[in-house]
C-alpha cells in the first residue's frame, strides 16, 4: 500500500516535508487558502484542498481517503486549533495508529531568563500566542489519546532557510541590530525540521513532544552581524531594545529568553543536524545565493 500524507497547511516547513516524501513515492495532499496556490500545488503533483479558519474543507471524505499520515502546521486562532475545530471528528475516524504530527513552537515554554528548557519542563507561555499554542497541543494530544492516534508535537524554534533568513533581511535593507542584554534565541534551518519530522515518521513515539532547534542559541544582533560579514558590508548600528521603536509584533519576540535543548531529537530520533548553528546555515545559504547569481551571469553571457 502506498503511504499518503495529508498536510493541513502547506507552508514553509510542511511543504518541504511533503516534497521529500513525494520524492520517496508517497501520495501527497494538503490545504492552502488560495485558488492560485492550489493550482501551483497541483502542478507539483500535490492534490490541493481549500481550507482556512472560516472555511472547512468542502469534501473532507475525499481529502482524507487513503491517508496514512497527517501533518498540521495551521496556527491556532481565536476559536482554538482550526483543524480540530472543523475536522476533529473526521480525524477521529482515521484508522487506529495513524501518525499525526503537529508543528508547534518553543513559545510554549515562555520566558526562562536565559535558562535551558527541555521537553520535560512545564509549559509556561508568556503571551497570547503562546497560550493558544499550549491549548492547541493539548487538543491534539487529547485527540490522540481518545481515538488511538499516534500524535507527536514538534516545537520549532525560529525558522530560517532559502528566501527567509538574515542574509535576505540584510540584502533588502530591513536589517536592524536590536540589543537586549542577555537575550538569546534558538533557531532551526528548515532542512533540519524536515529531517526531524521524517525521522519521527520512520520511528514514531506516540504522545512525544520534540524540541526542534540547533545547538547554538544566540543573540539576534550577532546573526545580523554575521550575515553582513558574509555579504561583505558593514553591519547596521546597534540599537538599545529599551529605546528602539518596534512594532508590537516585533517587540513580542523579545518577551521570551531561553536556551532550548535538542538532546531528545538526537537521542531518540538519531537526528544529526545538517546546520548545527546559524553560521553553518547562513554560509550554506550564502553559497546558494552565489551559485544562483553565477548561473544568471552565465545565462546572460
From TrEMBL:
InterPro entries with a match to the protein in the record: Epimerase_deHydtase, NAD(P)-bd_dom_sf
Pfam families in UniProt: Epimerase (PF01370)
Gene3D superfamilies tied to this protein: NAD(P)-binding Rossmann-like Domain
Keyword NAD: yes
Keywords associated with the record: NAD
Source organism superkingdom: Bacteria
TM regions (residue ranges): none
Annotated NAD-dependent epimerase/dehydratase domain residues: 102-213
Record has Methyltransferase as a keyword: no
Name this polypeptide is given: Nucleoside-diphosphate-sugar epimerase
UniProt source species: Thalassospira tepidiphila
